[in-house]
From TrEMBL:
<dbReference type="Pfam" id="PF22673">
    <property type="entry name" value="MCP-like_PDC_1"/>
</dbReference>
<protein>
    <recommendedName>
        <fullName>Cache domain-containing protein</fullName>
    </recommendedName>
</protein>
């Protein structure tokens, strides 16, 4: 059983790494462009980032099974010609890439304040990559998604994040086969106990599992994912039912 559990964990970690590998290409290009402009003594402007659109569109149209949108979201004030800035491409219509149109007018009722979004604040505060969700994306796809984000930096300064929105239902198809190989009912949960995937029809994505403040839940085995994936955990029921958090 230990071998099956390890194989399941490796499968999950490989799926996560695959998404971050694609994000890394966009992040590396932005940081290269930024370093070039700073090296010339110039403050980067939005026009300097046009090449990111080609990379994002390529990711969205090349062998894409689950990425709904990808790009960069920048820290307010880092660009020379605008305050808040988002170069984010998403799929529309029959799977064609388009720019995500967001309202950055702070006096508007529909103002999109990404500065307070967890997928933005956590990379800024921790300098670590993060996966946020599942949650409903009301601004882009109106679907249950996970947001993957990686901090962007130049010479120690936080520039923003490179990220991707992933369709949870499609991503589950990669995660569930490994979970089905386990002997016990099992959940893959995030740091707050939200279910990402499970091997039992009794649990749906987005439901909350009751995690204790310390230690493992009674009758369960909890295995954190390795490295920077450690905020996700595999929970297996050994001799008791998995308990929902209805609070």
């Amino acid at each position: 059983m230990a071998e099956r559990r390890q194989a399941c964990l490796w499968r999950i970690e490989a799926a996560l790494d695959g998404v971050f590998d694609d994000i890394e290409r966009i992040a590396a290009e932005l940081e290269r462009l930024w370093e070039g402009q700073v090296g010339l003594g110039k403050a980067p402007a939005s026009a300097d980032l046009k090449s990111l659109r080609t990379l994002a569109d390529d990711r969205l149209t090349r062998d894409n099974r689950w990425v709904l949108g990808t790009g960069v979201v920048l820290e307010p004030g880092v660009l020379a010609d605008c305050d808040m800035f988002c170069e984010w491409r998403h799929l529309v219509g029959e799977g064609k890439p388009a720019q995500l149109d967001l309202n950055f007018n702070r006096s508007s009722d529909s103002y999109y304040n990404y500065r307070d979004m967890p997928w933005f604040t956590q990379p800024r505060e921790t300098s670590q990559r993060v996966v946020e969700g599942p949650y409903i994306d009301l601004y882009g796809q109106d679907a249950y998604i996970l947001t993957f984000a990686r901090p962007l930096q130049c010479r120690g300064d936080f520039l923003g994040i490179a990220g991707a929105d992933v369709h949870l239902g499609r991503f589950e198809r990669i995660l569930v086969p490994g979970l089905l190989q386990l002997e016990h009912d099992a959940l893959l949960v995030n740091a707050s106990g939200r279910v990402i995937a499970s091997n039992t029809p009794g649990w749906l994505s987005g439901e909350r599992f009751r995690m204790p403040d310390k230690g493992s839940p009674p009758g369960c085995r909890v295995t954190p994912l390795a490295g920077q994936h450690a905020h996700w955990q595999l929970v297996e029921s050994l001799d008791s039912a998995l308990v929902r958090d209805d609070g």
